[in-house]
Amino acid sequence: MTNWFLRAKHWQLFILIFAVPIVIEMVAFVTVFATHEIAMVFVFMFVIMALVMGVQFGWFYNVGTALGKKLPENAGMNLKRFRSFVITPVIYFCFIFISMIVFGTFLFSGGRPSPFFGLGFLIIVPLHLFSMFCIFYTYWFIAKSLKMVEKWNHVEFGDYIGEFFLLWFFPVGVWFIQPRINRLFDPTLPPQVPPSYSNPFQQPNLSGQFPDQYPGQNSGNGPIYPPK
Q: What pTM, to 2 d.p., does this model score?
């Protein structure tokens, strides 16, 4: 069965990531106002975080993995590294959220920062910076992989910079990216042929191989494009 993240419509993802959290926030506001239980804020924050991160990073992981599997070995994309990097921010955010609840009382003493606050700061900052790097790597991997799968060729950053920023602003970008994902992974549709194969007398080789990235190299796969 095809992965749900590959079949989902753009509006379904947008509702789960943007609309549903707004509704939950409204419910949280009414609940806290009626019960005066400030602790309920953390409960609703956890629900919103779990929903948004579950959908967004679940989409990143599944779409990036599916695109990476479509690429040949000479594409130069490390799928194992991508999987590790896309999971790292999720673990980090969960760690921070749990730490705020469990250890928050130890970081402040009498309304003032305790000596443990500085130690926590030194630990969190490097982890936060590395987590940000992992997120941008995720954007880069998916954007480049998507463009290479569509073009059946190697690409430069200028070729997929638009996709990179669409992934950065995901709630908006999903309206443009997801229809392309649906098209690529729809088993009822024939393989999408790049514009360079618009000539009916040039039949593409659907073996999934890329031309060598650097002239003079021969990976043994052979190019799929006729010489220009």
A: 0.79
